[in-house]
Amino acid sequence: MQTTDPPRRLIVGITGASGSIFGVRLLEMLQGSGIETHLIMSRWGARTLVHETSYSPEQVNALATVVHPLTDQGAAISSGSFVTMGMVIAPCSVRTLAAIAHGLGDNLIHRAADVILKERRKLVLAVRESPLSEIHLENMLKLSRMGVVIAPPMPAFYSRPATIDEMVNYTCVRLLDQLGIHVDASRWGGLGGGSLRS
């Protein structure tokens, strides 16, 4: 039997938490990478996108290879036999966090994440909330113990970012790193005489 390399497909979820630019930037960074992106945007994700950015939902949809309606539980990504590299949800609302932690697949974002968990694939959640309640922390700990990467989009200042774009890019590069996807970007070279370099 002939074997083939696993498909280079990534599911990207955008929910209604603040920070929709993170999901948009991920899709922009993956343009031309050879990775097939499957986008699901929640209704509140689309609402927040319009409020926070100059992008329209249609413009963001155009960045993805495939766009799945939130209500389409029959989509290919709702089945474990559809092989992917994993899934990143950026931003991830605490409602989505809770639904995933408790196995509530009432929309395609939740169902796709549930599939990623049961298939032991990589799930990365850019959880956006502050401050965090005990419920939020318990849900994050539960998922972390299952191997989920909890990666809140926290800016780093040691590189002295001059713009919001630089802070967004830093976070998105780090999110993609967790999925084994490494894009060209400036990276930290250390404090001991090193420097930032591409």
What descriptors fit this protein?
198 residues; alpha/beta; Rossmann fold; 6-stranded parallel sheet; disordered C terminus
Protein architecture, described:
- With 198 residues, the chain is of the alpha/beta class.
- The protein has one domain (9-178): Rossmann fold (3-Layer(aba) Sandwich), CATH 3.40.50.
- It is built from 7 helices and 6 strands, in the order E-H-E-H-H-E-E-H-H-E-H-E-H.
- The protein has helices at 20-29, 43-52, 57-61, 94-101, 108-118, 134-145, 164-178, and strands at 9-14, 36-41, 66-67, 86-92, 122-127, 149-150.
- Strands 3-2-1-4-5-6 form a 6-stranded parallel beta sheet, with helices on both faces.
- Strand 1 (9-14), helix 1 (20-29) and strand 2 (36-41) form a beta-alpha-beta unit.
- Helix 4 crosses helix 6 (134-145).
| Shape summary | globular
- The strand order across the widest sheet is 3-2-1-4-5-6
CATH topology tier name = Rossmann fold
Q: Round the mean pLDDT to the nearest integer and report it.
A: 93
Radius of gyration: 17 Å
Going by helix content, strand content and strand pairing, the class is alpha/beta
- Name given to the CATH architecture: 3-Layer(aba) Sandwich
Low-confidence stretches: 194-198
Strand content: 5-15%
What is the count of structural domains? 1
Element layout with pairings:
Blueprint: E1 9-14, H1 20-29, E2 36-41, H2 43-52, H3 57-61, E3 66-67, E4 86-92, H4 94-101, H5 108-118, E5 122-127, H6 134-145, E6 149-150, H7 164-178
Structure at a glance:
With 198 residues, the chain is an alpha/beta fold. It has helices spanning 20-29, 43-52, 57-61, 94-101, 108-118, 134-145, 164-178; strands at 9-14, 36-41, 66-67, 86-92, 122-127, 149-150.
